[in-house]
């Protein structure tokens, strides 16, 4: 059907780009250690962009099994939109070789019978009951999900690319009750089918964190060295990255205008890397057909790159970094692939002092000024090897100052979804 | 449609399913965005899809956006439910046959795209000014036509329009950059945007963004805080609303579990969630489980009176269903969600409230929030603030966020104003996004302020 649509488009005197998807997902929700909601969803659709006399039109249709008349109308409608639209058309990318990445598709996920996935979720729930037994009063919930997506992009510049990917994710949330309350959570996503041990690990880690949270009380105000664990550092990096999106740079909504400036401690190097094998944020080509690649954003404290798609690359006089993210319902927009905080040389595993494990509320921060105030969901103090947890303080500061104050970056890289980071030692303030 | 209904009945018999429900949804939407006079998006789309839930002590769900797969989606949901065999329960009330529409004065479907573009251009032009480095305008509308039917015999057709206009500016100067924004929206027609005083509000956001360039970071620590109606809205949404959603109660993940009838706040506090408020962004007539939307008093005079519930939590917890099962769209299962949440007004004037504060903060505007319902901790941001000293408003502060413990903050409320406003449209995320509104009067309480001083 894609070929038929292309034939129709080739008859018209327009430039065009089509992006199509077909996929399905199965997911399972466990509440109170019982499998309560199971679902299987199907999706498919086509997004069409048309460039006509310097203007861009976009629309989409759901489903990919349409008759010729529907396709003709779809094309007519999109061309008509391009005529009335005042969205400038700056050209589609030309043909380039996609990146070679291993491990983005696992046949075992694509072909897993729903009954088997359901049974795995059932076992996950039963294992929750076993693992909480005899430890106190816990409520455990969680989710398990599997998905497969077939997608492709073609344009009038000769791009015709197709690929497929799979994903699996697991999450657990534990609440420990009694005279007080503690909560813990764990989330991870993968490209390939995982052994049951990963699910068990998710339960154990969430319970461990709930135990810690149960013991935690508010800590005294403090200013000085803080060790940030990857989930907490992710919040800080996320606020900073807002400034590197090409559209924010172009429209004056970024703190930065040019590359080359020192923006952080020399200990800090951050890359966006779509080419990591098995990476949950990896892709061979982006939503416009540009190859996925590794882009150095911050190198030893210096700003080296922005995140760009074709349009904002062109507007900023740069090349697309292959960061156009989309689905068939949307036009491409700039997004990250895998964000990697490069590991350092220090061993921060036996650190003694104040550690911030998790924070929340980062969307209330101001990415441009860099000021943030985040609630500490969980932290702990290590003294003489003894761990004293705390929570409910606020971590306050300025992102740029905090990144500049980084004293050490750990050796061990930890991954949560598409974010990779070691532990990071910086100067901060909690109130 | 008749064919699908017959097919569903037949499949339910085959798979031994006691309850099922089907939503077929058509959304006709337009969306325009502009930045610095450059149109970035102009989209007109119609989407149709089907979502099917079947219950067998646990839920099976399936959806498709290709209607040729409709029967397959029905069968899949039922097969999954058969496989599931849980021991939960759901409310099975009287069947409803109805056609309900939120009426508008002027349908946005009848407004030419050129007129919508003109509106966006006008706002962009009005936002221009010295020190303004970025202007951003977003307009969106969508008409949701939904046919709902279930195995009880309910057949409900609903038509709900939603419209939203929002704009923001970034100001640059003094080596600083600051943003300010405003949104307008409702379950309404084109008349909503026509009623906005664009000249006033565009000047307002420009002025605010520029003034924030010279504002200081707030002090940190625990302070008396007066919240304006917009911030009161996000405060009550985050600090109470999520914890009162009965799915978190059912799983024991809310700090409000088992506290119905208990005094959890000051006597003056009454908090309402009301999807029936005319024209508000979070309004609807029936929820996505075919239950009529109801006004719910969550807290009445300081006492926790009700949870927000869906078919399942109502049955499991033995409560009256109140129509708060909402789904982002046909491809999502309904979850317990808020609609329009607000604090009822009392009799304090703003001046009286101000005179109560020796040293504290007046905090204005919603910058979003987040809550940990199990631990009872929340955080939310304000667009701006002012230091209060001895009852007088002093210097402006920026980038302010607050944090607190739900049960402490509700008991720390010292004054509730008389000036109720519920017109702060937004989207609330809980794995899915649904339109909500919130608000209240000015409220004086005590919270932890996270500033850099």
Automatic annotation (TrEMBL), chain A:
Residues 110-207 form the Metalloprotease TldD/E central domain. Residues 226-425 form the Metalloprotease TldD/E C-terminal domain. One of its GO terms (molecular function) is metallopeptidase activity. It comes from Thermococcus onnurineus (strain NA1). Keywords: Hydrolase, Protease. Residues 16-82 form the Metalloprotease TldD/E N-terminal domain. This is Zinc-dependent protease. GO terms for biological process: proteolysis. Transmembrane segments: none annotated. GO terms for cellular component: cytosol. InterPro entries: Metalloprtase-TldD/E_C, Metalloprtase-TldD/E_cen_dom, Metalloprtase-TldD/E_N, PmbA, TldD/PmbA_N, TldD/PmbA_sf.
From TrEMBL, chain B:
The keyword Protease applies. Residues 108-210 form the Metalloprotease TldD/E central domain. Residues 20-81 form the Metalloprotease TldD/E N-terminal domain. Keywords: Hydrolase, Metalloprotease, Protease. GO terms for molecular function: metallopeptidase activity. It comes from the Archaea. This is Zinc-dependent protease. It comes from Thermococcus onnurineus (strain NA1).
